[in-house]
Amino acid sequence: MSAKRPLIAVMTGAGISTDSGIPDYRGPQGLWQQDPSAQDMVTIGPYLADPEVRRRAWLMRRDVGALAAEPNAGHLALAELERGGLPVRVLTQNVDGLHQRAGFPARKVLELHGTATEVSCARCRVRSGMDEALERVAAGESDPPCRACGGVLRPCTVMFGEPLDPEVIDRAEAVAKACDLFVAVGTSLQVYPAAALPRIAVEHGARLVIVNGEPTPYDDEADEVIREPISIALPQLVHRLLDGA
C-alpha cells in the first residue's frame, strides 16, 4: 500500500499577480498608498451610493486591464505542481482568474473574494461577463446599468463591508485543517477571515512557508520565510517539492 501523499494548501494574494501587470493594493507601491480614496471603489457602501465612485471604478477596471493579463511564472509553477501528482488546493484572495488560466483545475481553486471576470446586478442579481460590461464602458457608458432592470452593476467580488461567502470559508478552513503544508504567497496576511487560515493550518500540525516581499504577522511562526521575487521563488519552491515527492 502506497503512503498517503501530503496535502499542500497554497494561499495566494495580490503579490503573485503583480508580475502579470495587476497592481497590488497594500504594498509600498500599492494603489491605496498612492491614492487612499481609491478604497471607496471597492467598498460596497460608497460604490452603491455614489455614481462618481462607480465611474472611477469602471475606468480603473478598464485601465488595469486585468481581463487581458496573462499568468506569470508563479501561476504556471503552481499548475506544474498540481500536474506533478501532489494533492494541491489553491485558496486565493485574488479575483483575476489567473490560476485557472494557467491551467490549474478550477475545481481545486477556492476564490475567497469572488471573481472579477463576471458582474452582477445589485438589484436583480442577474450575472453577465465583465468583458461585456467593459465593452460598454469603452463605447461611452461611464456607469453601465443592468440591462435587465436598470440596477447598479457590480463585479462578482466581495467588497469591503460585505461578508465572505460562508460556504467558501468553511471549505477553505477544512483544507487548512487537513493540509500538511500551508504556503502563503504574495499576501500581507492582514485581511480576515482569510488571514486566519495559516493559523488554523499550524494549529492542526501543518508546516508553514511564507513567500512574500514584505514582513507578515506570521513570519515568526513560519518554518521558512522566502523574500525572493515570487516569479523566481515559487518555481524554485515547486521544484523542491516535486523533487521530494
Q: Could you please describe the fold and organization of this structure?
A:
The structure is a single chain. The protein has a six-stranded parallel sheet, sandwiched between helices. Strands 5-4-6 form a three-stranded antiparallel sheet. Helix 4 (73-83) runs parallel beside helix 9 and helix 7 (166-178) runs parallel beside helix 8. The protein has 245 residues and is α/β, with parallel strands linked by helices. It is elongated, with a radius of gyration of 19 Å. The mean pLDDT is 91. The protein has nine helices and nine strands. Helices cover 33% and strands 17% of the residues. The two termini are 16 Å apart. It has helices at 31-34, 44-49, 51-64, 73-83, 98-101, 130-138, 166-178, 197-203, 230-243; strands at 8-12, 88-92, 109-111, 114-121, 127-129, 153-157, 181-185, 207-211, 224-226. It folds into two domains: 1-22 and 72-113 and 164-245, 3-Layer(aba) Sandwich (Rossmann fold), CATH 3.40.50.1220; 23-64 and 117-157, 2-Layer Sandwich (SIR2/SIRT2 'Small Domain').
Which helices and strands appear, and what pairs or packs with what?
Layout: E1 8-12, H1 31-34, H2 44-49, H3 51-64, H4 73-83, E2 88-92, H5 98-101, E3 109-111, E4 114-121, E5 127-129, H6 130-138, E6 153-157, H7 166-178, E7 181-185, H8 197-203, E8 207-211, E9 224-226, H9 230-243
Parallel strand pairs: 1-2, 1-7, 2-3, 7-8, 8-9
Antiparallel strand pairs: 4-5, 4-6
EC number: 2.3.1.286
Domain Deacetylase sirtuin-type: 1-244
Active site: 113
